[in-house]
Design a protein that fits this description.
By secondary structure, this protein is mostly beta strands. It has one helix and 31 strands. It has a six-stranded antiparallel sheet, with no helix packed on it.
Length: 385
Amino acid sequence: MALPIKKEKLNQAFFLLSIIIIIILAVLLFQKRFRLYFKKAPFSLKLIRIVGSADNLKGPAGVAFGRRNNIYVVDSGNSRIVKFNIKGGYIRQWGIEGKATGEFMVPLFAAAYGNPERIYIVDSGNSRIQVFKPDGNFVSEFGISKNPKRMLLQPTFVGFAYDKIYAANSGSDDIMIYLKNGQFYERKGSSSIQEGSAAVNAPAQNGANGGSPQNSAGNAGKSSNNGASGGNAAGGSAAGSQTSAPAPAVSPVELKKPVSIAFSKKYIYISDYKLSKILVYNRQFDYIGSIGTPGQAGYQLYHPVGIVYKNGYLYVANYGRSLLTVFKLDNGYNVIKTYNFGTPGTGRDNFNHESNISISLNGEYLAVADTNNNRILIYRIFGAK
């Protein structure tokens, strides 16, 4: 009787061992597939939709994502705001040319902010910022003052960070800061900006330090003479990596034409149209350094306008070159890779002096105001989370 019992125990041991091996193999296989499934995709942009082509847009200069991915378009040439859903469906519009509340003179920028949501419109020609409900009903305005030190002059941007409202006061070449209720708080011009403690580094041009791998979602097109590539997706060419330690303090650069601002947790980025650079400051507005170099080749900037920061990437509407240039940043200021997307032109995959850009709250979509093509381009963002 001992042999059958021993054999039965041996069979049970082999069975248990087989089950354990199967479980281990299954776990290993699952982990491999899990890693492959969630492996970070290369950074790229894919054009998914064109908005406004049938809505008689005229020189749209601004675009802003609101809740539910609704899109607010600043239709500058028609002095109105047009609201679309993410699929490009028309919802409503408001505004006419004029100086009264709810009217506009050369509106340039929009931002959706707050709970309940409010739509802030930079009414540049009237040197003010108007605030509306999402249905277009007027709420308030600010920026007009008899005190020239507190007065907006041809503003081009409004944004929100660190419990304050920031406006690019392009007509006076400075930055105006307001409390959340629109009350004046502080003015930051070149004379009030101090030195920081680190210099910002632009990447090597034209793919130095590692070549220029192509990054695209879909089929990338042929490279153009300026180093960008277009295609069914916004094909992007990337510069090689560059990292460096913080450099000694640098003297502040005088603001020449600040047109847009972006924010990270630690830094403020200002797009300066005349300098063709992105200037970087800490939250105390100490000057840290700059990103990008002026020029019209490779990954250089030429009259940049709209900028947005999201998940370690700084997106720049490279207006003068009709390109979208994206900087991947380390520690908020060191450039480790640079991409160009799009090519100049009037076709589906081209830009014609794009002015401002916006990223959806979930970080999945990028909207570009393709100003001289009279349309809004919507892209899906890959690999930036």
